[in-house]
Design goal:
Blueprint lengths: L20 H21 L8 H5 L18 H7 L5 H7 L13 H9 L13 H12 L2 H8 L21 E10 L9 E7 L12 E4 L5 H11 L6 E2 L2 E2 H7 L8 H10 L2 H11 L13 H7 L7 H6 L7 E4 L10 E7 L2 E4 L2 E4 L1 H9 L5 E7 L14 E4 L6 H12 L6 E7 L2 H4 L3 H9 L5 E6 L9 H7 L1 H9 L3 E6 L4 H16 L4 H13 L3 E5 L1
Parallel strand pairs: 11-12, 11-14, 12-13, 14-15
Antiparallel strand pairs: 1-2, 1-10, 2-7, 3-6, 3-10, 4-5, 8-9
């Protein structure tokens, strides 16, 4: 039987401190969590626990039925319910292996479990719901690690190369932008160019580009006004305005901001803030509350600027699929970016990175960036292999890069692109380039789908079914398949279309067709970059 280590409780906040019992308890828990690694790091576990260590189960993509970017967190956690702690941590992730956190999902979960990573808020796609779930699961980590005994000391990983991760971001120069939609379009999409010549950054097609944006100054100034503070208040060695512009997220309000409000207010306001901090929704608007929205809701509550900034989440980088090939444009890098704009109540809201790239960044501006190497999203090693690419909307971005690359290396393999959007006259991105590639014989086939040009909506998966016999022939010839775009609907619909095509034209049952597609995924012949 494995012995358990008993560690006496640590009283951090003395009873004589000028706090209520509830405030002392919260602060004690907060500080205890911060110093827990030091407290437990020196504990020597009893002999005989090595066998328990051998039974530790870490997260892995191989046995992860929840590893699906289209699956909601409640469904993922239900699938992982009976699993050990590390796989449950993985199930809490948004399951895209996007690399935005600096890991893939399984590695991030394992790093948390093994206490090699303390940050619980790195999963940007998962947002607040993932952070909350990780916080709840993190309470089990200490007990699980003590029961299992310490693992073998890890070998230190080599230092990340400059510009290869969010921690080693470098500077690139913003060159400029051009709109990809015609004026009458309902969409607002931009082609953006960067100069990498002074940064020594390199990339390959299929990689993503991490960009650290800046918050809109109009929003920053409204927040400073709500705080009753001065723009030039010194904070972290800079002005409050600069810190709010560059360092912190002003989007979805974190629980820690509501927790701060509970300490500086009272009565019904405190009760309401406490409810929000615990994940409740007393006013029915929790899902839409950003930082300014919280200050407006608790109007008159004015946190000290330093405490306010400390309660916010750090600014997270945004990842974009690279839409250029370094062989076609040495020293440059391009992105294809949808500008996010919407209205909540009477307030206009915007995507911080997308509108910064579309509106506010200026030619010559230096931008903190890095290259996120692709996870299993790359052209086939054999240049003669046929390639099928499905990328509606900005999903066309990596395939513009693929086609540039295939042209630059004179790849003999055939290339087939499926592209779609709302209307042909306003939303046909890179039309002239694609026509030129087709005329040059690089783009063998171009299949288009416009969802708003006819009486009925028509999507890329509908076009795929129309040409299913030809698609099956390409697949039978060994074509590699690539999908880029929306994970929740498009990617699922496209995969369903492939299953139908394999069943109909490959003379298989539905279950056999599903297994066929699964086999393509295992052999890297079916790859997806979805978000």
């Amino acid at each position: 039987m494995t012995a358990h280590v008993s560690v006496p409780p640590v009283v951090v906040i003395p009873e004589t401190a000028p706090f209520s019992a509830e405030q002392r308890a919260w602060l004690s828990g907060f500080l205890a969590a911060a110093v827990a690694p030091e407290l437990f790091g020196g504990v020597t576990l009893p002999a005989g626990t090595a066998a328990a260590a051998a039974s530790v189960v870490l997260a892995s993509n191989d046995e992860a039925p929840w590893h699906d970017p289209a699956m909601l967190i409640d469904e993922r956690m239900k699938l992982a319910d009976a699993r050990p702690l590390a796989p449950r941590l993985m199930a809490a992730m948004a399951q895209q292996d996007c690399g935005q956190c600096g890991y893939n999902c399984a590695d991030y979960a394992n790093a948390l479990f093994e206490k090699k990573e303390e940050r619980l808020n790195l999963c940007a796609p998962g947002g607040k719901e993932t952070a909350r779930m990780l916080k709840a699961l993190a309470e089990e980590i200490g007990a699980a690690k003590i029961d299992a005994a310490p693992s073998t000391p890890a070998i230190a990983a080599p230092a990340a190369a400059p510009g290869s991760s969010r921690e080693t971001a470098m500077e690139a120069v913003f060159i400029g932008r051009r709109r990809l939609n015609a004026e009458a379009s309902a969409k607002d999409t931009w082609h953006v160019d960067f100069d990498l010549s002074g940064s020594n950054l390199d990339y390959t097609v299929g990689d993503s580009f991490g960009v650290f944006p800046r918050n809109e100054l109009g929003l920053v100034d409204q927040i400073i006004a709500m705080l009753g503070a001065s723009h030039v208040t010194e904070l972290r060695g800079r002005t409050l305005r600069e810190v709010l512009r560059d360092d912190v997220s002003l989007g979805v309000a974190p629980d820690s901001l509501f927790e701060l409000i509970t300490f500086i207010t009272g009565g019904k306001l405190r009760e309401k803030a406490r409810a929000f901090a615990h994940g409740e929704d007393p006013d029915g608007d929790a899902a839409h509350l950003d930082v300014l929205g919280v200050l407006q809701k608790f109007n008159g509550v004015r946190p000290h600027p330093e405490a306010f900034v400390d309660a916010l989440e750090p600014m997270q980088p945004r990842l974009y699929s690279i839409s250029s090939s370094p062989k076609a444009a040495p020293g440059k890098l391009s992105l294809s970016v949808d500008a996010v704009r919407y209205v909540v109540g009477k307030r206009k809201r915007v995507g911080v990175a997308s509108t910064w790239l579309a509106d506010r960044a200026g030619p010559g501006d230096k931008v903190r960036v890095y290259v996120q190497k692709a996870h299993n999203f790359a052209l086939p090693a054999n240049a003669a292999t046929p390639v099928v690419m499905i990328g509606p909307g900005t999903g066309v971005a990596p395939f513009r890069a693929f086609l540039q690359e295939r042209q630059a290396i004179k790849a003999p393999g055939k290339n087939w692109l499926f592209f779609g959007h709302q209307r042909m006259t306003t939303d046909f991105f890179y039309r002239d380039e694609l026509d030129a590639l087709r005329d040059a014989g690089v783009l063998t086939r171009l299949s288009l789908a416009w969802s708003r040009d006819g009486e009925a909506k028509f999507y890329v998966q509908d076009r795929m079914r129309e040409v299913g016999a030809a698609l099956w022939q390409w697949m039978a010839e060994g074509a590699h398949i690539y999908i880029c775009g929306d994970a929740k609907r498009m990617a699922k619909d496209v995969e369903a279309a492939f299953v139908d095509i394999v069943a109909q034209h490959g003379a298989r049952t539905t279950q056999e067709a599903i297994a066929y597609i699964a086999g393509l995924k295992k052999t890297a012949r079916y790859q997806a970059d979805v978000y």
